């Protein structure tokens, strides 16, 4: 099994060969190594030795970007300069002031570091017992309206 120190230079060599052969593809097409294949090799190497890839990781806040050089302010306050290709800079966009993670993996070299998840404590809500419902107020019923009886109809006299 290859160690991290053997894998990363070989992957970087493969990416430089694939980038160089993509530019000069007409000279020798047999040297073309497709980028997805290089990425797959890097992923396999990282899966075999994840601790080895943690060694080459740089975490810092982007201080400035001038041309291909990115200045990172590391967490201990030191400034470190690293180079990014034009494609990497175009892919990540304007990142000044953002926290980034730069690794040795050529296909996924620069990642924006996730924002820290704010830790919030739950709000204490005092338990309030509801007051008992008031008893319904008995309202007196209105007096019934007098019922008027109609006058008796006259009975006709038949005699």
Order of helices and strands: HHHEEEHEE
Number of domains: 2
Write the CATH fold name of the largest domain.
Answer: OB fold (Dihydrolipoamide Acetyltransferase, E2P)
Low confidence ranges: 10-29
State the name of the first-level CATH class of the largest domain. Answer: Mainly Beta
- Rg value: 41 Å
Summarize this structure briefly.
The protein has 159 residues and is an alpha+beta fold. The protein has helices at residues 4-23, 35-48, 50-55, 86-92, and strands at residues 58-66, 69-74, 79-83, 99-102, 110-112.
Indicate the topology.
Layout lengths: L3 H20 L11 H14 L1 H6 L2 E9 L2 E6 L4 E5 L2 H7 L6 E4 L7 E3 L47
Antiparallel strand pairs: 1-2, 1-4, 2-3, 4-5
Helix pairs in contact: 1-2
Task: Explain what you see.
By secondary structure, the chain is an alpha+beta fold. The protein has two domains: 1-55, no CATH class; 57-115, OB fold (Dihydrolipoamide Acetyltransferase, E2P). Helices cover 30% and strands 17% of the residues. The chain contains four helices and five strands; from the N terminus they run H-H-H-E-E-E-H-E-E. The chain has helices spanning 4-23, 35-48, 50-55, 86-92, and strands at 58-66, 69-74, 79-83, 99-102, 110-112. A five-stranded antiparallel beta sheet has the order 3-2-1-4-5, with no helix packed on it. A hairpin with a 2-residue loop joins strand 1 and strand 2 (69-74). Helix 1 (4-23) runs antiparallel to helix 2 (35-48). It is rod-shaped and about 135 Å long.
């Amino acid at each position: 099994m290859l160690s991290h120190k053997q894998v990363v230079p070989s992957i970087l060599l493969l990416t430089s060969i694939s980038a160089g052969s993509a530019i000069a593809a007409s000279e020798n097409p047999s040297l073309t190594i497709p980028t997805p294949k290089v990425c797959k090799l890097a992923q396999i190497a990282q899966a075999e030795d994840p601790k080895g890839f943690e060694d080459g990781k740089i975490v810092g806040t982007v201080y400035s970007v001038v041309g291909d050089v990115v200045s990172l302010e590391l967490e201990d306050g030191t400034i470190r300069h690293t180079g990014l290709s034009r494609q990497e800079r175009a892919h990540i966009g304007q990142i000044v002031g953002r926290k980034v993670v730069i690794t040795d993996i050529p296909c996924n070299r620069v990642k924006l570091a996730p924002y820290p998840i704010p830790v919030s404590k739950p709000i204490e809500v005092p338990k309030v017992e509801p007051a008992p419902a008031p008893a319904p107020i008995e309202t007196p019923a209105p007096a019934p309206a007098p019922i008027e009886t109609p006058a008796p109809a006259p009975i006709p006299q038949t005699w």
